[in-house]
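Q: Convert this sequence to structure tokens.
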Amino acid sequence: MAVLRFPFHLEGASWREAFPICLEVDWSEAMGLWRASEALDLWGAQLFEVRPQGQEAIPLQFLPGPSFHPRQRIQGEWSFVLPAQPETKDARRFVLEVRTFPAQRALTVSPGLLRPALPNGEVAPRPYPFLMQVEPQAGGGLAFYRGKDLLLGYQYLPEWRLKPFFYPVVGPAGVGLTRLGHPHDIVGHRHHLSLWVAHQNINSINFWEEGEGKGRQVQQAILRLEDGPVYAEAAISLQWQRPDGVPLLAETRIVRVYSLPQREWLMDWVLEFRALEKEVSFGKTPFGPLGVRVAKPISVLDGNGRIENARGQVNEAQVFWQAAEWCDYSGLVEEGTWNGITVYDHPENFSYPTHWHVRNDGWMGAALFLTQGRTLKADEGLKIRFRFYLHWGDARNPVVAHHFEVWALPPQVRWGQPQRLEEG
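A:
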């Protein structure tokens, strides 16, 4: 058997803080490195950073792509959280190692992914523990964990809510950073559901508020759940339906949660919409597609909160209706402890940089449709991406801006020549 070594280096980014890296790969041209009688232990792959003092291991996670086949095409995504190296200015060097094993000893873990059985009947150990997990809940929702700690809940309660939502959303201090409803208008703003996706005007139907005559988001299926040492991910299929149940939109919602050092975490959303009618129009509105209702202790008016955007504007008087790459809401969650949540708009979103609908009372919305609508023809799609950062401190910490920089413009990857090293 052998070790297959895939060297690469990263360049063109600041290394002052840890951040996630996703490498899209297609190793079709490297298929000659292993024999027809061999399989690849992709779940047991290891990543090392090559430094002057030696190699340092970095936890790694693989996600097969749509064209992946264990014998014909190794296509997918390798992900890891790159450790901070603030003193490093140059490119960073790495080697990704994948071991081969006899194909007759292959155990199928999931479609296409194989794991080796040892000669004594045991299963070869994984190099990294499952730090991040997402688990179905009895009520129909999901829970995202880092170890034993709950980070995020996804709630689907169709008997009393017209849309799914995310609650709780737990900051690094272990305190929830969002709430259900406006603290001073619980009934009138009952549709403020912590962290959610909605829109006030799609083909003149209100998917924002709740009640009779409003549109619904109906979950169709949990398509995929991924656990691992780097992130947990859920892919969810939804329909946006008229009040009479006729579907307007299909949506695939992908939610990925990364662990960061010091109990911080990142979350990436990919929202992919597809029109199910001849024409589906997202109208101009300040309400949608993203809403956040922060917890009372971190709001500006009720607590000791602070709003700040990427342009350095502070609180409602300066931030309201302003366009910016990101917006942050933070506050005092415990005596001497400040936590916050940053929402990042992606440069590929159609109205980037978005306008922010933000209030001192604890409301924060990314108003992508404030100045322009969007019309989809039948089967036409629309993709929207957001990133969230759950952090210590407030937006004056430069790490808040750093996470936008490396997400909007990731470091460049340059692959070297792969090689096969025989073992034993």
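The longest helix spans residues 398-408.
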